[in-house]
TrEMBL record, chain A:
Record bears the keyword Membrane: yes
Domain PIGA GPI anchor biosynthesis: 40-126
GO cellular component: glycosylphosphatidylinositol-N-acetylglucosaminyltransferase (GPI-GnT) complex
GO terms, molecular function: phosphatidylinositol N-acetylglucosaminyltransferase activity
Protein name (Swiss-Prot/TrEMBL): Glycosyltransferase family 4 protein
Gene3D superfamilies in the cross-refs: Glycogen Phosphorylase B
A biological process from GO: GPI anchor biosynthetic process
Transmembrane regions: 387-410
InterPro entries: PIGA_GPI_anchor_biosynthesis
Domain of life: Eukaryota
Keywords from the named record: Membrane, Transmembrane, Transmembrane helix
Keyword Manganese in record: no
Organism: Sanghuangporus baumii
Automatic annotation (TrEMBL), chain B:
Keywords: Glycosyltransferase, GPI-anchor biosynthesis, Membrane, Transferase, Transmembrane, Transmembrane helix
Biased composition (Basic and acidic residues): 32-55
Region (Disordered): 1-83
Record localization: Membrane
This protein's pathway: Glycolipid biosynthesis; glycosylphosphatidylinositol-anchor biosynthesis
Protein name: Phosphatidylinositol N-acetylglucosaminyltransferase
InterPro entries: Plno_GlcNAc_GPI2 (IPR009450)
Any one GO CC term of the record: glycosylphosphatidylinositol-N-acetylglucosaminyltransferase (GPI-GnT) complex
Family: Belongs to the PIGC family.
Amino acid sequence: MISDFFHPNVGGVENHIYMLSVELLRKGHKVIVITHSHPPDRVGIRWLLPGIKVYYIPFVTIASSATLPNFFTFLPYYRSIILREGINLIHAHASLSSLGHEGILHAHHFGVRTVFTDHSLFGFEDAASILTNKLLEATLSNVDAVICVSHTGRENTVLRSCIPPSIAHVIPNAIVVDQFRPSEDLLTTDTINIVVISRLAYRKGIDLFVATAPRICTLFPNVKFIVGGDGSKLIDILQMREKHFLQDRIILRGPVRHDDVRKVLTEGSIFLNTSLTESFGIAILEAACAGLYVVSTRVGGVPEILPEDMISLPLPEEDDIVRAMSEAIRRVSAGLHDPHAAHARIREFYNWKDVTERTERVYQFALSAPETDLWTRIKRTNALGRFVGPIYVVILIVDIFFFNLLEWLIPRESIDYVPKECDWTQQRYEQYAKEVEDRVKKKATS
Amino acid sequence: MGNLCSKPGTLSGGHTVLGGGQTVAPSSPRNESPEERRAQLAEAARQRMENDKNRLINKNNPNAGRLASQVNKPVKHVPQQKEPEPLRWMSTEWEKVLWKKQPYPDNYIPDSFLSSLRRNANFRPYTYWPLVLAACTISQHISSIFIFLVTFVRLYDESWDPRILVWICVGMFLLGLILWELLERCVFGYRIDKEQRAKTFKSSILVFLALLALSPVLRTLSASTSSDSIWALTACLFMLNILLADYGPSRSGRLGRERLTSVLSINAAMSASVVLASRLRDDISVFALMLFSIQVFALLPMLRTRLLMMPSFLRALLTVSFAGVSIHLTSGLSQLVTGIQAVILGFITFGAPWVLVWAQKFKNEIRGPWDVAIPQVR
């Protein structure tokens, strides 16, 4: 697993990588994670429970935890890690993670197979998208398999990176269902709490929320909003609250830690999501799992994640959201939505075990793919474009020279290989946990 | 066959297997173990997937154009059937949902793949003549810059009397004011009251006197700077002015808030005139040039946004007269510059719109459900 985005940061991608690693480890695979370091203290090699080895490589980050695309500087670390750990498959995550891109570029020198997971959607219009799309296209021109988190995301990735659609797989995200149980005591139906938890940013459609919340409050005097999250649009919500005298009906909770999300969610019975773009929408799934009825704008991959009777999908327009919210409030106050039934259904739909099995199948697919020789890779890279093609060919060739230089400077015989028995496996972990427990018990009895 | 016979394990039942193979495989119920059946089903599914793919290629759907081109590209490797077990439900229709467990492989390409892709959805093709008319505004602006430059050169070599220029400026100001009032009254239906008119006169007299007082200072402002630097600086500033100027019609009837770029544009032009004026010899020339520059770069653009509301015939006529005057004035100075000027004006008015119309055929705007939605708030 390679990505710029990993623990100690928190977020959808970070969580995805961690959960997938845990499940793969449980299935008896060996998993290591490579990410950039977080000075001053999170550097070097760390172990995360239950036995995931994490390499924190010293790289400087530029913005929101992403590193600059260096193309070469990662190779010395990378080569040593791949060789000493005996890796046969690289799984890079997130299209803005240049560490992941670099990992895919180098992997082919070792004959290591590559899988890439794309977690987000991009447009084709603005300059930033055009540049990152080209970067992605260059990386993915030689990748063995791609995983996308939704069907919409797959269409988007195939268009952006011009890969043959047959190597793009759709595997949704999953959640730990037990972390999002609905509350046991039934909520009263005379006040209906609507929960909004999101980053308060333009892309999350906070403008729509600001426009609709006062209208819903006037329509239904028994409705309260609970808003969790922080961001640049907080000020808009504050202004709206003051303008319409809704201080007691729109409660701002500030940033919510991931552990506390369930607590906030179970206070309400309707979850409102006004995102303008969403690849998968894990927040929606968490809310639905906690037994909330979901109202979300019909954008990106959102319509795919839940059956139609668990979610309302208004268009991203003020009037339509008010209409859908009114319906949802009537539905919930009539007691037509059963939180526990919803929870049980989500339990059937999504779990990490299933996701891991499907990912394993993609790994098999990538491993069984015929290896591309250098000449094919050069040709593919050159076909990227009239200007970009030759640039990337130069990068590729320099990379190969650099790789061979390293082969000569640090010969493979001089590398310390990790012995097999040094790795944590599920059994070893369980055994150790048991031993520790016994020891603690013994101490307690003596 | 040779290697089949060479294996001792399969030799015993070799001929029966072979016989079954020559006829159709599924019709041998005797030795059909669950595994074999599964394998056959897997083969059928693979075939089905191949067919699906071919159908996708052949389908003449304009939306699938890009996809088809990708499928036609050499696929890196043949997708493998990895889920042979649930084939019994293969008849169920594929749905674009994630919550349902579907009996299709994860890399299954449905018929509806990329069907929501829209290309050039909001595309309105430009036509030639409206573009030419729109480009007229740019030509007018460039012509006025040339007129200003000629005026400067004439004052610099002292072949024009600055006093006459001052009177021309005053005349132009009055003419512009009358035109402005006429437009306000006829086109927009506003009426300028006396108080406001008095204000306008007061402020214009103030500017007039301030310029007069400042002209000795402006004359010696950059005395220590070499003339070459001044010419280069002026060229850059005028380029900036042309690039940033506001060529659109005024958005509201009344003077709205100016855009930042148009303010920058006016500033660039004024700075250019100040540094040029500092090359002149006497105060009255400096004063005349500054007055003229205010007319051309500050007041004329304001009037121009209003003039864009006029019928297209008058706009074309105005452009022709502007271009004519500027070319006529330049021709008295240098044949070469006149030629360059004519080429520039011709290209901007007639060539550039043609290039834009031609370039439209490369337009390929991709839209789909992944785009950031535009929130509609009342």
